[in-house]
Design a protein that fits this description.
201 residues, 8-stranded mixed β-sheet, binds magnesium ion, binds guanosine-5'-triphosphate
Length: 201
């Protein structure tokens, strides 16, 4: 739930980038950090393992201006995708307002995408949250690999695997090259703001 401080007229919104290991969650935040440096008050915090995997989370606070006199801060987080860190993933989801599910279009990651999405559903349940009611955007990442020899899944297959029931907005993206990273971000921000509108404003 969004954190609202009526006295200081501040609203903090938490958006979590979730998905399988090495899918490109951290790379999304790194791109946003570069692109919007002037709107970002503090340094991006990344807690990493030695081989550059997310150990706990990445954190990037982000100002989007005012709505009805309230200062809105968006806090972007990533979870660690490695299978063994599910306890941490659950912790990072605490208080989540919106989710970007970063899936990997590589054919060999197909099962991992589905397993990760199923686990997201279960992890939210522990907070009595329903994925079907959560502001959610799908991102099919690493689309640039289409131009290489690495086998990738088609958009239709990604949609069928991950989005046939949820039916949320979905974008192909390349976090590495910045393709559709900002579009994904804008979509999750607008969807999340719309969903908390009644609660806050
Ligand atoms: N080709 C390509 N590689 C990408 C893209 N996005 C990320 N990568 C690469 O994939 C690897 C993993 O990216 P990360 O952003 O660290 O992935 P993550 O989802 O944060 O991984 P965990 O922290 O382990 O969960 C890195 O080598 C990235 O450079 C992309 O759009 N295209
Ligand atoms: Mg990461």
């Amino acid at each position: 739930m969004a954190l609202i401080n009526v006295k200081t007229r501040e609203v903090q919104i938490k958006i979590v980038y979730y998905g399988p290991g090495r899918g490109g969650k951290t790379t999304n935040l790194e791109y946003i950090n570069k692109k919007y440096r002037n709107q970002i008050k503090t340094e991006m915090v990344s807690l990493k393992t030695q081989d550059d995997r997310t150990l706990f989370f990445d954190f990037l606070p982000f100002d989007v201006g005012q709505i009805k006199g309230f200062d809105i801060t968006i806090q972007l987080y990533t979870v660690p995708g490695q299978v063994k860190y599910n306890a941490t993933r659950k912790l990072v989801l605490r208080g989540v307002d919106g989710i970007v599910f970063v899936a990997d279009v590589q054919k060999e990651q197909r099962k991992k995408n589905i397993e990760s999405l199923n686990q997201l559903y279960e992890n939210l349940e522990t907070y009595k949250l329903d994925l079907f009611k959560m502001p959610l955007v799908m991102q099919y990442n690493k689309i640039d690999l289409k131009l290489t020899n690495i086998p990738v899944l088609s958009s239709q297959t990604m949609q069928k695997d991950l989005n046939s029931l949820l039916r949320v907005p979905a974008f192909e993206a390349s976090a590495l090259k910045g393709g559709n990273v900002i579009l994904t971000l804008k979509k999750i921000i607008s969807t999340t703001l719309a969903s908390i509108q009644d609660q806050v404003f």
